[in-house]
């Protein structure tokens, strides 16, 4: 018969047992950016509604988005998006059984960070110049 | 007949996982459907996301006519719907997996899951209405 086991519940390993590692930091960042993007989907829905509604609704939304706070949110959204995208591909590779060796895990981790910076910079260059 | 060796690859993607036979250790209640949905939507979101990240950021600072015209195109409208739906489905699984790790009371877990799903259904419905209005009104 199954009996309840008194096992420790997460998060019990971090930060008591783990010292800082880039791999675990990236893992936590994946979750944080995921939560951020989920919250950001409210902004996306709001923007879509404002375009559909038009008039004052769109003007107000547009004014907010091009304000310093709006641009900061868009910038953070893009960083979170590209990080989650790149690290998500890393996760898909793991799901397929690739890249589990410590060296590969570190290398792919740094690659994800580099790609995040690259994609963010390229996107904003495109946005600002287009 | 020789017994086939059990490997992770041979069992991980089937409905009948070895976990079902596991007593005591690990959860064997549910989760495979969600696991698959998360990966499926993740793959879909790679091309959809790259296209829309660039488009939406560009549109965010454009005027109303540009945005409305862009969204009225059937291809854009379809891809936008897929992006919103895949993204929100992905978000539900992701947020619930975070909850599963940090909320240890069943009742609270169920309640939080309901709140998330309700919010996502409202967001999906609102986005869909907005996209359809722009598409049909063109």
Number of helices in the DSSP assignment of chain B: 5
Under the CATH scheme, which architecture of chain B would be assigned? Up-down Bundle
Number of domains of chain B: 1
Strand content of chain A: under 5%
Any idea of the CATH topology of chain B?
3 helical TM bundles of succinate and fumarate reductases
CATH superfamily of chain A: Fumarate reductase/succinate dehydrogenase, transmembrane subunit
Percentage of residues assigned to helices of chain B? over 70%
- Count of strand segments of chain A: 0
Main pleated sheet of chain B = none
Q: CA-to-CA gap between the ends of chain B?
A: 66 Å
Task: Give descriptors for this structure.
A: 130 residues, mainly alpha, 3 helical TM bundles of succinate and fumarate reductases, 76% helix, B: 138 residues, elongated
List the helices and strands and how they pair.
The complex is a heterodimer of chains A (130) and B (138).
Chain A: H1 22-53, H2 55-65, H3 68-95, H4 102-129
Helix pairs in contact in A: 1-2, 1-3, 3-4
Chain B: H1 8-11, H2 32-60, H3 64-72, H4 74-102, H5 106-136
Helix pairs in contact in B: 2-4, 3-5, 4-5
